[in-house]
Design a protein that fits this description.
GO terms for molecular function: isomerase activity. It comes from Paenibacillus sabinae T27. Keywords: Isomerase. The chain contains two helices and two strands, in the order βαβα. The chain is an alpha+beta fold and 68 residues long. The chain has one domain: Macrophage Migration Inhibitory Factor. β1, α1 and β2 form a beta-alpha-beta unit. The longest helix has 19 residues. The N and C termini lie far apart (30 Å).
Length: 68
């Protein structure tokens, strides 16, 4: 069972996450020739105030495409 862990800064919408899941599952399924139902995906959202580059902290969520 392939498992994908995606680490990204917080701020993505549910719709964005659903699209990410759909694309990753579709493409991985195609490449490895395995049904999508066997692929699992989890998100680890990192708070912007934790380990974020200075430009992300300055811009904040939605400020430059990285925060949502």
């Amino acid at each position: 069972m392939p498992h994908i862990t995606i680490k990204m800064y917080e701020g993505r919408t549910r719709e964005q996450k659903e699209e990410i899941v759909a694309v990753f599952k579709r493409e991985l399924s195609r490449v490895i020739e395995r049904e999508e139902r066997f692929i699992t995906i989890e998100f680890h959202e990192i708070p912007l105030d934790e380990n974020a580059p200075a430009n992300l902290l300055k811009a904040g969520p939605g400020g430059n495409g990285y925060g949502g």
